[in-house]
């Protein structure tokens, strides 16, 4: 299951995203691709659905996109912006 900490505040637009971790007083920025994935997950899409959306949007091979998204999520996990306990579940978005 993917989950977002409740202390995150996010702004997403076509250029990417900015994530404020209020508890650590830290801002993380994402490029447009990262912002695209973050937006999908925040809206409750599964990782697989987000991968499918990105692959369709960019006309890129599904497996290539899937590997890239998995690496991206691992980076977010290392920054403590998400916690992962299974790839198929929906993100629990707390605003």
Question: Can you tell me about this structure?
Answer:
With 95 residues, the protein is of the alpha+beta class. It has a single domain (2-84), classed as Coenzyme PQQ synthesis protein D (PqqD) (Arc Repressor Mutant, subunit A, Orthogonal Bundle). Helices cover 42% and strands 22% of the residues. The protein is built from 3 helices and 5 strands, in the order ββββαααβ. It has helices spanning 32-42, 47-58, 62-78; strands at 2-3, 8-13, 16-21, 26-30, 83-84. Strands 2-3-4 form a 3-stranded antiparallel sheet, covered by helices on one side. Strands 1-5 form a two-stranded antiparallel ribbon. Strand 2 (8-13) and strand 3 (16-21) form a beta hairpin. Helix 1 (32-42) crosses helix 2 (47-58) and helix 2 crosses helix 3 (62-78). The protein is globular.
Offer a concise description of the structure:
This protein has a single domain (2-84), classed as Arc Repressor Mutant, subunit A, CATH 1.10.10.1150. 42% of the residues lie in helices and 22% in strands.
